Amino acid sequence: MNRLTYRNNRKKRNIWSIVSYVAFGIITLWLLASMYFETSPVDILKKGFVSIGSVGGGDSIESLRAEIVEKDSIIAALEMQLSQKSNEGLKKAIVKISSNTLNMRDKPSLSSGIVLQIPAESEVDILYYDTQKFYLEGKQGKWCKIQYAGQEGWVWGNFLLEIE
After folding, report:
1. Strands, E assignment, 22-122
2. 74 and 14 in one domain?
3. How many domains does the chain have?
4. DSSP secondary structure string, 10-39?
5. What share of the chain is helix, strand, coil (3-state, %, to 5)?
6. Which of 33, 41, 62, 152 has the CA that lies 20 to 30 A from 50?
């Protein structure tokens, strides 16, 4: 009888070791999935594994098509700017402002950092214009990427007068 009890205990231990290995494996996969999808493990449980790989977050087909058309137009505008740049070389412009200097910024935004200040009436090289139009002081315009004094940055395009 001792021998039978020993065998039963041995089988129980084997079953619990298999269950613990399976549980460890599932938890490991769960944590690795959360790292791969850059989300918390709790979010993976809430959303389920099926929704992780879904495209567009449940957007309709029409909204996805509209987004594709919009991005295609941006690509076309960039291709046109690239072909103009390669065909014509760099355009020149004169800084036309009512103040003494024009701020050249590191990004196309009034809140971005100032790279340097360009004196009025200075000549700059135009690299390209941004594709989006904005309003500044009630006038519509685009940000312009320029080169001046060996540095590149962004200025408001309405403050430039193209020459040549």
Report:
1. 91-95, 101-105, 114-119
2. no
3. 3
4. HHHHHHHHHHHHHHHHHHHHHHHHHHHTTS
5. 50, 25, 25
6. 62
Structure tokens at 137: 């002081």
Are 31 and 41 contacting, i.e. CB atoms less than 8 angstroms apart? yes
3-class DSSP state for residue 159?
helix
> According to the model, what pLDDT value does residue 118 have?
95
Check: CB of residue 108 under 8 Å from CB of residue 130: yes
* Long-range CB contacts for residues 71-80, cutoff 8 Å, separation at least 24: 74/131, 77/131, 78/131
Q: In whole angstroms, what is the distance from residue 62 CA to residue 34 CA?
A: 31
> Hey, what are 35's tokens?
């790292």
Q: Which amino acid is at 12?
A: K
Contacts with 14 (C-beta within 8 Å, 6 or more apart), sequence order: none
| Whether residue 69 is found in the same domain as residue 39 | no
Helix (H, G, I), strand (E, B) or coil at 73: helix
pLDDT along the chain (164 residues), means of 10: 57 76 89 83 70 56 88 87 66 92 93 94 90 86 92 92 84
The domain of 65 spans 60-88
